């Protein structure tokens, strides 16, 4: 679950990873249960990922992660696979919003330059820091409002709580 | 330190003295624009468990995507939206026939300088042409705006694009923005606010400024803006009684990039299939056979677009075995085009006139293509399958290029007809 300081094992990827390889379009026409969505996560990018990913792992990538379609499943499949945080040099805008609104912690910084797959990285959301084996990076702290969304598990549960709806 | 347009708007709405790029603010939008997707948004809104829309006066709902309804399913969708509008007491509702949401918004005085607009449509940045900060959002968050009246936004880095030179004959705002997108690429302005400035932009009509802002979405931008001036004020006069406060970037604002384009030697531009940044000068595609030509959409469905088309087609006939579709962006545009005789000229030349709406652009109805067919269009997207057939090809160009191509049945340089 959500923690202000999160440490996890890294899966490292490159630039311009699009939503089609994160979650193939052929699965978007039907509503799949979470565990099956998780099985297709990054299917066309890294077949090892879905088999070996563990709860709390961190995806670290280069530029423009999540470009292409606006499909929200490209975020939820990683969430269902147990990914604890997502760090990239940059994100396609709608992907970034979808991640926060779906409660997946997301950080923009160039940590990809100083970490390899299998190593550990730590994200400290309160201090606005990412620490890798060979680097340390600052990012602007998320606003309290956005932290609140992440802590509540996404925008809809957040709004329900905010409005006092059980 | 100076602030960009985006920083000023977002700081103002957040009640802060200043903000910096990357910072996240929670702000109350002045307007929430939704369209045929309002039924889906209303469903999520109900899942939240709220009875009433927080600020119904901020809602603007325009039925435009599949109008009039093409199937029973579309009709039911529209029916659900009308019921939601009635139940929630939403005054700013525009039913079938009023036009495309991005044209109706400003016409009805909902896109004002200095305002913050969010819309569940990726071409919402169009309203930046009126000096508004306008960004596209997802359905889930549109439902949350209905429930709370607020949205979180990240303060974007800003680009300033300065356009200068003498616009050559046969070259329009569409050619300029296609050239810029080709240069910067499909993610060249990802999450950025793009400010357009320079003498060419000052000289441009409001309609042409809308073309620039509309298409920033195709280079990933969050918003595009042209600062308001006397043209903006004249255009808005009589359309709103709301007093608005214009917002301008500071002269010493900090930009991530300042880009300068000189249009003196610019040729008409064309985006080839299947990406919008696959842009070439017209000379590279002259002679390409077409089956269909389409003038309309939220990018190029305004009176000036039909005027240039009529200049090329008046008194002539389009090529045999070629279809020309005209889609006025709104009822107001259609009435003006009729009053000017443009509809008569173009229909006489062989065009088919469609009702105001999104029409063929999204491939749901009207002018859907067959496998192997080619359309040249004034729209903003040429993705595979966009016009309803994944085995068809779409070229994007200016209204002049599309009209001239309809005359020949192949892509031609419009400059020989002007």
Quick take:
Chain A is α/β, with parallel strands linked by helices and 166 residues long. Chain A is built from seven helices and seven strands, in the order βαααβαβαββββαα. Helices cover 30% and strands 19% of the residues of chain A.
* Structure summary, number of beta strands of chain A: 7
Largest sheet of chain A: 7 strands, mixed
Poorly predicted runs of 5 or more residues of chain A:
none
Number of helices of chain A: 7
Structural class of chain B: alpha/beta
User: Averaging pLDDT over every residue of chain B, what do you get?
Assistant: 96
- Helix coverage percent of residues of chain B? 25-40%
Explain what you see:
The complex is a heterodimer of chains A (166) and B (418). Chain A is of the alpha/beta class. Helices cover 30% and strands 19% of the residues of chain A. Chain A has helices at residues 19-22, 34-39, 47-52, 73-80, 93-101, 144-152, 155-162; strands at residues 5-12, 58-61, 85-88, 106-108, 120-124, 129-132, 135-138. In chain A, strands 4-3-2-1-5-6-7 form a 7-stranded mixed β-sheet, covered by helices on one side. In chain A, α6 packs across α7. Chain A is globular, with a radius of gyration of 15 Å. The model of chain A has no long low-confidence stretch (mean pLDDT 89). In chain B, α11 (303-313) packs parallel to α14. In chain B, the strands form 5 sheets. A 5-stranded parallel β-sheet of chain B has the order 4-3-2-5-6, with helices on both faces. The model of chain B has no long low-confidence stretch (mean pLDDT 96). Chain B is globular, with a radius of gyration of 21 Å. Helices cover 31% and strands 18% of the residues of chain B. With 418 residues, chain B is α/β, with parallel strands linked by helices. Chain B has helices spanning 5-14, 38-48, 72-88, 101-107, 139-148, 173-184, 199-203, 206-214, 230-236, 297-300, 303-313, 331-339, 342-348, 399-408, and strands at 24-27, 31-34, 59-62, 93-94, 116-119, 133-136, 151-154, 158-164, 193-197, 223-226, 257-262, 269-271, 279-281, 292-296, 323-327, 351-353, 374-377, 393-396. Chain B has 14 helices and 18 strands. In chain B, a hairpin with a 7-residue loop joins β12 (269-271) and β13. Chains A and B meet through α5, α6 and α7 of A and β1, α2 and α5 of B.
């Amino acid at each position: 679950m959500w923690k202000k300081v999160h440490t996890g094992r890294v899966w490292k990827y490159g630039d311009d990873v699009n939503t089609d390889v994160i979650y193939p379009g052929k699965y978007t026409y039907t509503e799949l249960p979470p565990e099956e969505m998780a099985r297709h996560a990054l299917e066309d990018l890294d077949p090892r990922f879905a088999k070996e990913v563990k709860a709390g792992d961190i995806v670290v990538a280069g530029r423009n992660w999540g470009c292409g379609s606006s499909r929200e499943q490209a975020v939820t499949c990683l969430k269902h696979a147990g990914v604890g945080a997502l760090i990239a040099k940059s994100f396609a805008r709608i992907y970034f919003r979808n991640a926060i609104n779906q409660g997946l912690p997301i950080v923009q910084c160039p940590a990809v330059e100083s970490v390899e797959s299998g190593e550990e990285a730590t994200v400290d959301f309160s201090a606005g820091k990412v620490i890798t084996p060979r680097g340390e990076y600052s990012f602007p702290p998320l606003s309290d409002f956005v932290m609140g969304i992440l802590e509540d598990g996404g925008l809809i549960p957040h709004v329900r709580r905010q409005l006092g709806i059980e | 330190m100076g602030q960009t347009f985006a920083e000023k708007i977002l700081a103002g709405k957040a009640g802060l003295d200043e903000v910096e790029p990357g910072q996240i603010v929670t702000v109350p939008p002045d307007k929430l624009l939704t369209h045929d997707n309002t039924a889906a948004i209303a469903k999520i809104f109900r899942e939240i468990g709220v009875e009433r829309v927080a600020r119904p006066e901020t809602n603007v709902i325009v039925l435009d995507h599949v109008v009039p309804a093409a199937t029973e399913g579309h009709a039911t969708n529209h029916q659900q939206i009308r019921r939601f509008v009635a139940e929630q007491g939403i005054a700013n509702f525009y039913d079938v026939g009023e036009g495309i949401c991005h044209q109706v918004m400003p016409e009805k005085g909902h896109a004002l300088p200095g305002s913050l607009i969010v819309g569940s449509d990726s071409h919402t940045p169009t309203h930046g042409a009126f000096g508004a900060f306008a960004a596209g959002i997802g359905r889930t968050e549109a439902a949350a705006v209905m429930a709370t009246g607020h949205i979180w936004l990240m303060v974007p880095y800003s680009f300033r694009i300065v356009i200068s030179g003498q616009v050559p004959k046969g070259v329009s705002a569409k050619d300029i923005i296609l050239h810029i997108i080709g240069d910067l690429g499909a993610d060249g302005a990802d999450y950025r606010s793009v400010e357009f400035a320079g003498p060419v932009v000052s000289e441009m009509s409001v309609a042409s400024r809308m073309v620039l802002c509309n298409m920033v979405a195709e280079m990933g931008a969050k918003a595009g803006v042209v600062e308001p001036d006397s043209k903006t004020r004249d255009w808005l006069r009589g359309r709103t009684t709301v007093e608005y406060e214009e917002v301008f970037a500071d002269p010493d604002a900090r930009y991530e990039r300042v880009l300068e384009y000189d249009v003196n030697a610019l040729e008409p531009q064309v985006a080839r299939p299947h990406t919008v940044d696959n842009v070439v000068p017209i000379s590279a595609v002259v002679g390409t056979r077409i089956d269909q030509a389409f003038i309309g959409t939220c990018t190029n469905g305004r009176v000036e677009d039909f005027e240039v088309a009529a200049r090329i087609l008046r008194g002539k006939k389009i090529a045999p075995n070629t279809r020309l579709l005209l889609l006025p962006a709104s009822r107001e545009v259609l009435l003006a085009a009729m009053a000017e005789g443009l509809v008569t000229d173009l229909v006489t030349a062989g065009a088919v006139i469609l009702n105001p709406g999104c029409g063929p652009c999204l491939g749901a109805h009207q002018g859907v293509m067959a496998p192997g067919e080619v359309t040249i269009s004034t729209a903003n997207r040429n993705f595979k399958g966009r016009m309803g057939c994944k085995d068809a090809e779409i070229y994007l160009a200016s209204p002049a290029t599309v009209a001239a191509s309809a005359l020949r049945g192949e892509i031609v340089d419009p400059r020989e007809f002007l």
